[in-house]
């Protein structure tokens, strides 16, 4: 052994080319107690040459000098990992680093109190990653002078260093992906943070940087105005003492950028400003989740939302009494999902002005808001899949809802939305609403139904009606009436204009293929009758053919909800119980002005689903469900194992020119999970 060290390690200036030269040489040795200076005198190193050399040497108390200035990938990685008796680290003079060179070098050296100077200004990927992770006695953070960072360069560098009380200056202005991720995570005694001057960020750059720093009181200003994906993700998560946030300047967001940022900050009373007006997917998800002392929410001026953007944002903020305004009128899927879930002190809900909803948009939004007595007005007349599902569940003091929907046919749009609200209350229903559902998924049992306005007489009526082709025997009437009546508060009102649509009485088909016909259409409202005329076009022969393409089949196991009305059930066949496959069928139509079909799937809700193409567009299993240019409808997020027609999603093509066209239907299957029926299903309406 002495010959090896005297003639090789101590006598060579360069270990370049000697990869793994001393790799794991003393790994887990119990006999190494100290190493003389000069033992490792090489100044030019090779790949992993000292990697894990003393790893697990729990009796090692002093490290050898390490004079190398030219490093190689992994050269010192894990070198002293788990040396629990090591109290002093060697000098590390290199100014230009190599990838992973110091990675986990002193990890779990629990007796190490002082870190060496780190003069390097040219960094490399993972160079300091996990370097002092778990060094629970370390009390200082060395200066880190680099201004341009590399990927993962400081990632987890001081993770779990529970004796640190402050950071050093971090002057870097050019960041890289994951550069600071988890850098001080779990530093439970950290109370002081130096500024973070970077204005241009990178993906994941600050992710979990100060997570679980439970004694941290103040957060520094974050001057960047343009964010990157996951950049602040969980940055101060579970910093239980944090009560001051100096500011967020960001106006341009990125996907997941601020998710979980202050989640679990139980001492935070005031949130920072959030000035962005255009959001990104998941951007504020869980941002203040569990901030139980938060009494004031920031203004949320955004008018352009994105998928899951506010999801769970204030969940379990049990001291929040008033919600911020939510001015957006166009929503995105899951945008307000669980936003105020469990906010038990919330007494005032924000206005919700949107009239065009999206799937799951208000899903569980106010669940458990036990102090809420009045719901915000819900002006939308047509609901979307799961849009109000569980929205006011367990709001036990809720006694007033004004919900103006006339179309509640979307899948589970009202599922359990008023479960366990107050036993009595007032429900204001749209005057034109024809639906009549009572209970947890409709109007609460025991509540009084009123209307915003009740007409009592009609003073004038005008109508128009749509022209139709020869085969149609009814048409759509559009009516407008001037009425007098009574308002919700009992006051009288005059000259109120009301409007709506209706289906005409039946008239004969026009069987001529050359001559049009004029029809007189009449409509009566509150005793007043109006008439108009329409043109009934020539007869157009229509038919459809189905090409199952050996990938779909007509099911013998799934019940047709009404075989006299619907053709099918067609089910995907070729990719059953297979992963990463898709099945395609085609419907060729001719002579139609409108065409209706129904789709359903029963599998993993967000991964396996049916897609229907736009007319004459080509799609396959790699087509994005959100590509509206190619995809007309899909079942992503709306799975059902029921076989009734209410479990299917209607897809209707309108304005067709009567020519020859093709509709493509794809059931796509992801790379895992194929239990259950795990298929797509299609019905076609026979009477088009």
What string gives the helices and strands in order?
A: HEEEEEEEEEEEEEEEEEEEE
Over all CA atoms, what is the radius of gyration?
34 Å
Largest sheet: 5 strands, antiparallel
- CATH top level label of the domain at 543-685: Mainly Beta
Helix vs. strand class: mainly beta
CATH architecture of the domain at 543-685: Sandwich
**What would the average pLDDT be, to the nearest integer?**
91
> N- to C-terminal separation?
90 Å
* Number of H/I helices: 1
Approximate strand percentage? 15-25%
Q: Poorly predicted ranges (pLDDT <50, ≥5 residues)? A: 1-8
> How are the strands of the largest sheet arranged?
11-14-19-16-17
> What is the tally of beta strands?
20
| CATH topology type of the domain at 543-685 | Jelly Rolls
Query: What best-fitting shape do the alpha-carbon axes yield?
Result: elongated
* Helical residues, percent: under 10%
Task: Give short descriptive properties of this protein.
about 700 residues; mainly beta; Jelly Rolls; 5-stranded antiparallel β-sheet; 1 helix; elongated; disordered N terminus
Question: How is this structure best described in words?
Answer:
By secondary structure, this protein is mainly β. The chain contains one helix and 20 strands. The strands form six sheets. A five-stranded antiparallel sheet has the order 11-14-19-16-17, with no helix packed on it. The protein is elongated, with a radius of gyration of 34 Å. It is 1% helix and 19% strand.
């Amino acid at each position: 052994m002495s010959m090896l060290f005297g003639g090789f390690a101590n006598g060579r200036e360069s270990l370049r080319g000697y990869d793994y030269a001393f790799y794991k040489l003393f790994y887990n040795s119990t006999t190494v107690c100290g190493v003389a200076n000069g033992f490792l005198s090489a100044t030019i190193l090779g790949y992993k040459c000292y990697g894990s050399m003393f790893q697990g040497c729990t009796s090692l108390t002093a490290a050898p000098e390490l004079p190398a200035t030219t490093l190689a990938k992994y050269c010192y990685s894990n070198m002293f990992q788990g040396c629990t008796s090591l109290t002093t680290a060697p000098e590390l003079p290199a100014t230009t680093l190599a990838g992973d060179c110091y990675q986990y070098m002193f990890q779990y050296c629990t007796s190490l109190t002082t870190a060496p100077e780190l003069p390097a200004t040219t960094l490399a990927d993972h160079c300091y990653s996990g370097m002092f992770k778990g060094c629970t006695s370390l009390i200082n953070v060395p200066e880190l002078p680099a201004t341009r960072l590399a990927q993962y360069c400081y990632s987890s560098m001081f993770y779990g260093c529970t004796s640190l009380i402050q950071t050093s200056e971090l002057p870097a202005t050019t960041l890289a992906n994951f550069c600071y991720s988890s850098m001080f995570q779990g530093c439970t005694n950290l109370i002081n943070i130096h500024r973070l001057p970077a204005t241009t960020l990178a993906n994941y750059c600050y992710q979990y940087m100060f997570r679980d720093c439970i004694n941290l009181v103040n957060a520094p200003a974050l001057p960047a105005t343009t964010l990157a994906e996951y950049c602040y993700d969980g940055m101060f998560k579970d910093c239980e003492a944090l009560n001051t946030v100096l500011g967020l300047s960001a106006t341009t967001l990125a996907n997941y950028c601020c998710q979980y940022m202050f989640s679990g900050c139980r001492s935070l009373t005031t949130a920072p400003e959030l000035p962005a007006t255009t959001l990104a997917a998941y951007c504020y998800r869980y941002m203040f989740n569990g901030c139980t002392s938060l009494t004031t929410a920031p203004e949320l001026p955004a008018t352009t939302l994105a998928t899951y953007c506010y999801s769970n944002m204030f969940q379990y903020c049990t001291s929040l009494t008033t919600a911020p305004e939510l001015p957006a009128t166009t929503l995105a899927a899951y945008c307000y999902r669980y936003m105020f879930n469990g906010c038990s002190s919330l007494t005032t809900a924000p206005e919700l002005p949107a009239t065009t909803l999206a799937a799951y948009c208000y899903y569980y939004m106010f669940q458990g808001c036990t102090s809420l007595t009045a719901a915000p007005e819900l002006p939308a007349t047509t609901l979307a899949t799961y849009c109000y599902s569980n929205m006011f569940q367990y709001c036990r003091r809720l006694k007033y809802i004004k919900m103006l929907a006339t179309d509640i046919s979307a899948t589970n749009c009202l599922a359990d939305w008023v479960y366990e609200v107050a036993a009595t209350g007032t429900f204001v229903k749209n005057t034109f609403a024809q639906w009549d559902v009572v209970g947890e998924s409709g109007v609460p049992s025991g509540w009084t139904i009123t209307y915003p306005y009740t007409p009592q007489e009609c003073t004038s009526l005008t109508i128009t009606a749509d022209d139709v082709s020869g085969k149609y025997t009814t048409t759509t009437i559009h009516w407008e009436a001037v009425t007098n009546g009574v308002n919700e508060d009992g006051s009288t009102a005059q000259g109120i204009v009301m409007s709506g649509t209706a289906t005409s009485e039946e008239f004969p088909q026009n069987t001529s293929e050359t001559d049009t016909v004029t029809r007189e259409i009449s409509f009566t409202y509150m005793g007043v009758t109006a008439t108009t005329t329409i043109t009934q076009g020539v007869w157009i022969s229509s038919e459809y053919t189905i090409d199952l393409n050996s990938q779909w089949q007509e099911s013998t196991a799934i019940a047709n909800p009404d075989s006299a009305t619907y053709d099918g059930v067609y089910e995907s066949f070729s990719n059953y119980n297979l992963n990463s496959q898709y099945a395609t069928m085609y419907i060729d139509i001719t002579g139609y002005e409108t065409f209706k079909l129904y789709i359903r799937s029963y599998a993993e809700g967000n991964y396996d689903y049916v897609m229907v193409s736009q007319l004459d567009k080509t799609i396959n299993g790699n087509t994005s469900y959100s590509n509206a240019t190619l995809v007309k409808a899909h079942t992503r997020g709306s799975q059902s194992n029921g076989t009734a027609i209410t479990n299917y999603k209607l897809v209707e093509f309108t304005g067709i020119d009567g020519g020859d066209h093709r509709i493509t239907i794809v059931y796509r299957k992801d790379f895992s999970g194929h239990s259950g029926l795990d298929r797509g299903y299609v019905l076609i309406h026979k009477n088009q």
